[in-house]
Amino acid sequence: MSRVASGYLSCSTDVTQRKTLPQLLGTRLQRQRQRCPSEPQLKETVVQFMRHHQNLGDLLLEINGSMSKCLSHCGKVNPEHQIASSPGKGTFIASVLQEQALQMDLPVGFLAARASMEKIQQIMQQGTMPQRAVILDSGQRRMFACLLQSMQELLSSNILSRLQFIEEIWKAKELPTLEIVWRLHKESIVSLEELVSSNPDVSAVVCWLFNDLLCLGTEDADQHEDVQRQILLDLVIVLVRNAFQKVNIVESDPKVQHLTQICFTVLGKMIPYLLDTVWNEGEKEHSAEQKTTIFWLDMFDVTLFHGAISLDSLKQFFYHTLTQILTYNPVLEASDAIRRQGEWCFAKSKPLLVTLYRKLFVLFSAEELITHFQQVLESHEVNWQCVLSCVSTLLVCQPESQKYLKELLTKLLINAFENYELESMITAFLLARQAALEGPAVFVSYSEWFKNSFGSASSYHGSSKKSLIFLLKFLTDLVPFETAQYLKVHILYPPYVASKYRVMLLEYISLAKTRLSDFQVSIKELGLYEDLSTANAPLKPQCQAMQDVERAVLIFENSGKIPASVMEASIFRRPYYLTRFLPALLTPRLLPPAQDSRMVFIDSLRKADKIPENLYASYVQACEREKQCLLEDVSMSEELQGPMEPIGVLTTALEELNKVVTEPSDIGVVSAQIAVISGQLKTMIDTDDDCTAMDKPIQLETVVHELTPVESEVRDLLLKSFCQTFITATNFNPPQRQGEWASLFVKMLCGHRKLLSAVLTRVLHLTTHQGSSLADVHILGLAAFTIHLHILQLILLPMNSTGPVAESAGQEGLSFAEYLNQFLICRTGEFSTFCMRFCTAAVAYAISLSPLPSIDIIKLSVPSGFVQKLQYIIPRLIPEARQEQEVIKESMWHNLVDLHLNWRNAALSLFKQRPFKELTKVKEFQLTFHEWLMSELAVQPDKDLLVDLERQDYQHWACYQLYLPSPLSEGGCGGDLETACRIIMNALLDFHKRAKVRYCKESDCSELSSLNRSCYESITCRLQEMVFDLEKVWTKALDKSGHFLLDVFQDRMARLELSNLSKKLEHQIELQIFIRILLVLPPSLLFKTRKDRSRTTLECEAFFHFTNTELRNDCSKEFAIPFGVTLHFFRGLLNACVECEEPDCVVADILSVARTRCPLLLLSATFWWPRLEQVLITQWKRFTDETFPRELQRMVDNQCWANRLLSGKVECSPPDIPWVLGAFLYFTVKRKTGLAILQTTMQKICAENELVSVLCFSLMDLISSLLKPKESSALTVALKICADVILVLEEQNKSWLNIFLVANKDRGPHQILYNIISDMEIKILPVAFYSLIPGLDPKLLSSIIKHSDFLSVAIILYTGMVKLFLDGEDTMLASNQYDLQSSKQPDPLGLITRGHQFLLRAIPVCPAQTCLQSQLQAAWKDIDPELKAALGHHLNICNGDDLYSEPTIL
């Protein structure tokens, strides 16, 4: 035992030396002779002795014996037995400490704290346990009780310092055990809060408390169990009370924050440890961890905390614990939960976990718990096993939770379909299925929930097609993970689907049935009363049918009616009803004398025509035979053995082939077996194949065509056998050493043309429609089958397709692999993954087939499309492939036959292979930039595996790092941004054209929506980025003629022959797409800058040419090109001019050129000016503070002039060319009054050219009404407006007839307007003339005929109209008979007749036209003899100086 103050109090000078016995005896005799000392001296001597030999640690244990005894028996300090020692003893201990402290020059509180801690360390070391224990034994506890009494006395007399004592605790080599800390806390010497908060090292405090708490439940001393429980309870109360305080209290005091952090951390570590132990329940039944767990589970008893912790804090602790349970170790994915949730029902959950759940549920209502579940599911990644087992426990233990769970499911489904959120959908399905596992007494069955949720038109998915696709896509994605019972529910109770979307549902049902077949479960065998929600395996079909019969008879007996389920089965499930239910019901038996319930039930079904008469007759006869056999004691059972069915013979032959392929050296045995198979096929399949049939092309359908049942079975058997045999052979030998069995098999199949077509169609259907659901075995087998077909393409004739996708999929002359490749379009992430797997397997197999690593040999076996597909997919899905990869020489086939096949690693390994790298350098195997763009454009972003940022990174890598620096010879851009932009433009146009042509020709146009969900926008962004990089360089490139973007369109149009209507429509479509692309690019790209000495000018010749040639004929509408194009031009003009020294002059120069070379642009600006003005002004002010360019300001003035003229103010016209002023006037009147006051307004204008321009615009409206009739009154209004304008012109004696003479070179200043209308509209001018002039007022017409040039104009226009009709271009009027009737338009022949009659009446009264005789006769030649004769007669009369008379015929 150490002595705290022994080093300070001992006297080193009074050391007694050892003496001999005589000396001692002599000394004693001398002492006896001395005089006895006095009493004071004796007391002083004793005190000095005690001072020199006092041990403070032992002194602290010298207390009342009764206290020590009490503590040793009860194990704790009992207040009833706290009998203080005499006042002298307490005062003595205090005086000793004070005196020693004074001698040592130390604070007495410090000395008392150190002495106490030293004694605690000694007590801990005296334990009987071989290692550190958190509980004291009886001797330690007795000693510590005495120490506690002394410490209490010292603390009451202010001798012991709490703070000094706490510091000594943390300075000690070994921290006190948990019981010591607890007793100090209970006796109010040092509370746990003070002790914990005094140490700033959070991790050290947490580690100490956590480790001791773990040891607390592992002590083997059963006699201390009550002490351990009390310690744990008190400590947990402290931890919870301080860890879950109110927020305002915690934030106000840093010390409280420190304490809260420590307590919260300890609890946060303890709960996961508890869950670890619960999770391993059953592995170590009597382990120390299990004991600790049981101890801790008792601490969740709410009654223990009564009065010690507030209810709010306790609820927070329980909420926190529940959250930690639900989010504990979330390694299980949703797919794992779908597979295994049947194992997590209440009955199968771990007992300790269920106990913990039930204790946590006590404080909360069902609604609070469900709400908390929802919050955790929305904000955390959860452990699905914990969540689902917790839900099961809640439903079983609190039945009222069913209501709130249904509400939660409703919220999840609403959120899922409103936001198309997959997580909510998965959560709803998992919770519903888990609840259904607990039986109908707890929750509705899954089939009932599914029907209620999705079985009607008002269900969640019934609002839109997108919602339906979301549901079906979700169910489809679940198929690989579903168990059989849920697939049955989805098939038997399918979601409501409108009739027009029925095909999508049938595709899912087909996939689900295929998955059921993998389980060897037939939907036809499903019982009428089978529980589809149970996790148990279903009964055998025969047993289930017998149960169905018994239950149906029981229902019939109780209700007297045929059960509805039986009636439904007789209609909708006839295979099961006829093959299972009725045979079980009509099992022969000895009939009772009186009819029983079963017989009555059979009679009722028979009367309802639900039992075929022949089947009922057979049943009656069998029952009679049963009766006779019973009487004669003769058994009627006979074993009938027949010959093996043909399909069985074929199956046996294919199984034999599976055995012989393991020995590839026996080529003769393999060939013989394949011959046996071929012979059996000939006997089974009726075919007309002969030698000549081999020359016929193989017909493939994009949908599986109808086959006889035998043909379908044989087809599937052949494919299944090939895949199984391939895997068997691969397990024994690599591809190059497997022999010729696969090649012989394919060659044999080529001899059965009809069967080959069926097999190829099936392969096509499997890969394009069911690829994601194919197992690895199927993928490997189908890939090998496709490669052998590709190798044998010399003996295979070109493939044709008669399906609707044939035109877009390919042309004649393709091998099967090339044909199949055109269907492998990576639109979705799911299908991209399948394409990567299939193409990886095919290319790896083809490379492995070659015995020599020669690229010339390998490329004969590898389909080029598959290599290109892998060059696109692998870097897209595997980012590692985008980096420089080391070349691998070893074969990678072993990666594909590994037991745990990892397709990602296999694809990456193939990508690094030397043969694959060499193949990508061969021209026909390269993936060009254009082909990459077409593949990327086909991707649907909403179904892509890459998120937006990942897709953007991938596209940047492909564009800038892969293809931009690559040489042109390798399909790249040669480092030229201009070339890259051209390729992207062509790809965007090709993609749009291909998509529209394909989808519009197909009967099913549902794919049109996928066009809108393509990567068009992201690729357009890449184009914009490149154009921005190129813009400054290109606009200053004066050595280049043309425009690199406009030239793309011109080059494409040069390859089109616009001789037929389809090509013209294609031209219009491409033009619209090109304009859409052009408008998203920088507008200043339309201009080039030129340096003219010290002045910078702009050039826009390429765009002017594009406008005059393309936009004028195909995009102009109502005198103008689209607003977007017009705005784009002017925005580009302002953007470019501000870079010049004199912006105003630059704008004036460009618009001056536009007036003469491209008047359509200026006219479009006039037409759209009310919308353009504010946009351009705002943009100009954003660029500069200078005044608006004068040419644009002139247009502002023109618009104001037109507005004032319309309001009745007559003033001089602005200084601008007449046709521009006329355009502003005409468009303004048309917008504001609908041309009703045009005549009145025109009468205020005196300028001839402005009036004639207005007539031109009104004629254009008339032509538009003739070409595109809208309403029956449109033509009448147009004719009236033209007549009003002509009347004004005649009243003012203006010349206007020459505007119809398009071919005349001297047409006056207004003739430039004919450069703004299309060629078709120019051709229709004669039609407009004869639709207008003959119908004018007779007085007005008489005035017109007086014009000297009237007859020549009328004859030339009539000639043009007749020629238009004779050339077959009768599209000048309405396009169909309905339009002719609705718009009251004359047919073309009637119009010609009307013009003919008009001229016959007008010629005699026209003035002489001697100067035009030769021209008129040349125009009239061989066209109309009658008019020619009339004209000749009139000219002869005029030449004879006959007098002119007024016309009187009109």
Task: Throw out a few tags for this protein.
1450 residues, two-stranded parallel ribbon, two-stranded antiparallel sheet, 64% helix, extended, disordered C terminus
Note down, in words, how this protein is organized:
This protein has 1450 residues and is mainly alpha-helical. The protein contains 70 helices and four strands. The N terminus and C terminus are likely disordered. A hairpin with a 2-residue loop joins strand 3 and strand 4.
Q: Give the count of helical stretches.
A: 70
Computed over alpha carbons, the radius of gyration is 51 Å
* Strand arrangement across the biggest beta sheet: 1-2
> How would you classify the helix and strand content by structural class?
mainly alpha
- Outline: extended
**Average residue pLDDT:** 77
Strand residue content: under 5%
Span between termini: 147 Å
The residue ranges in which pLDDT falls below 50 over 5 or more consecutive positions are 1-17, 63-89, 531-537, 634-644, 688-696, 794-811, 997-1011, 1370-1384, 1441-1450
| Helical percentage | 55-70%
Major sheet description: 2 strands, parallel
Secondary-structure blueprint of this entry?
Blueprint (H helix, E strand, L loop, with lengths): L5 H4 L11 H13 L5 H15 L2 H5 L4 H10 L12 H18 L3 H18 L12 H19 L5 H10 L6 H9 L5 H6 L4 H15 L8 H19 L3 H6 L1 H26 L8 H11 L12 H16 L7 H7 L10 H11 L4 H14 L4 H14 L3 H19 L2 H16 L8 H9 L10 H14 L5 H9 L9 H17 L22 H19 L4 H9 L1 H12 L11 H11 L5 H20 L13 H15 L6 H18 L13 E3 L8 H24 L8 H10 L2 H17 L6 H16 L7 E3 L4 H4 L6 H6 L7 H21 L5 H7 L2 H14 L15 H4 L6 H10 L1 H6 L9 H9 L10 H16 L13 H25 L6 H5 L3 H20 L10 H9 L6 H18 L9 E5 L2 E5 L1 H14 L8 H15 L5 H15 L1 H25 L6 H17 L11 H16 L4 H5 L5 H20 L4 H20 L27 H5 L1 H8 L5 H8 L4 H17 L10 H7 L4 H15 L10 H8 L4 H15 L11
Parallel strand pairs: 1-2
Antiparallel strand pairs: 3-4
Helix pairs in contact: 5-8, 7-8, 7-9, 12-15, 13-15, 15-16, 19-21, 20-22, 21-23, 22-23, 25-27, 26-27, 28-30, 29-30, 33-34, 33-35, 34-36, 35-37, 35-38, 38-41, 41-43, 41-45, 47-49, 49-51, 49-53, 55-57, 56-57, 57-59, 58-59, 59-61, 61-62, 64-66, 66-68
